[in-house]
């Protein structure tokens, strides 16, 4: 049986996912077989495994940090919000259906066998399991039949570390309040606290650390400084979404759709010093970018309506007519077409005109496409002609099928799950679209896109970074682990692991 430890937080975005990734890398460095686990995740950033199953992006990051292949058993339940009060429910990597919040609240206890089957698979194959909670364990209105915080800790018999975010302020009140709202048996499972995102001198913080230990009777395991670590984010609370300013020679504007998903597609550009990646919410922010990206979305039709109502659609069409490069990924690709048809109410129902920059129609079906792919760009014309013949890999995850009426396919792709070859995407002039998430991740592809944009502006192109994105991420995981190792009492962490609850 594996040893386990659970990471909970006083709030969403307290740093649970990153701290879990850090422990996964530290335990790996120390010679252990370690795996992450999150029973239920709510996020629009997801990933397709080699088996064609869907899981949360955070557990993929944690698996990478642990040096293992992502597996859907690491995240058996994924909730993908489709509205403010409803989500698509994905169990064991496959769509179960859409549920309202109240429907899911009544249903979730039925998923405990799925959770424990997934957890037990890891329990049989690893030395250590690092479990991540969700939100806060002190949401007293949600504690009935809890399956992701203290309910999960009890199912796994796992000791708990509580993460508090000092950057938001009120960290001692949130740590104390969280622990005090737990039941007595739950408080006994709380074995340590960690203060996260600290800026300043720990000496000044020390009196507060002693007091919170006395008040809660729980040891402070460490104080982790605020870190500038570039690791894939789980959801749209990401601080990278706040970037509004041009700081590089090349300006890429990503439209921040209300239901934006898989925005990790564009992280590769952020590591290139010559590039600014901005997330744009309205027409005033768009300015004069060198490239406009329409990203993936969990609800293409409603997000297109939002784009239309706030004036961004008209502005995108204006830029496109002036020659600005426009690239749509997945839902963004669907938006660029002529018609979106949802006869079965997969999203919002009904039929809607697209942006009409690509002559293609999309029909939504209930079956979701989920697969990893490899691909090769065709002989592309225009600004991105340098991509011609290059290879890439990624994954598809969407509910619609797009039929092209005019234009050239962007690439030939091989479905690595079904071993079926087909064409993907469409190009008409300076407008490009593709269903492939991760199409830019290969360093050669990302660098070529940036060089093309620089040359179009008459900027001399020096050597851009040739480090692979995979190597770059490995360095970030090591940097994360090094910082956390120096900041927390790892002897205490190992003691907690050994003693359990």
TrEMBL record:
SUPFAM superfamilies: Class I glutamine amidotransferase-like (SSF52317), P-loop containing nucleoside triphosphate hydrolases (SSF52540). InterPro entries: Class_I_gatase-like (IPR029062), CobQ/CobB/MinD/ParA_Nub-bd_dom (IPR002586), CobQ_GATase1 (IPR033949), CobQ_N (IPR047045), CobQ_synth (IPR004459), GATase_3 (IPR011698), P-loop_NTPase (IPR027417). The active site is at 330 (nucleophile), 437. GO terms for biological process: cobalamin biosynthetic process. Residues 5-228 form the CobQ/CobB/MinD/ParA nucleotide binding domain. Residues 251-444 form the CobB/CobQ-like glutamine amidotransferase domain. This is Cobyric acid synthase. It comes from Anaerotalea alkaliphila. The gene is cobQ.
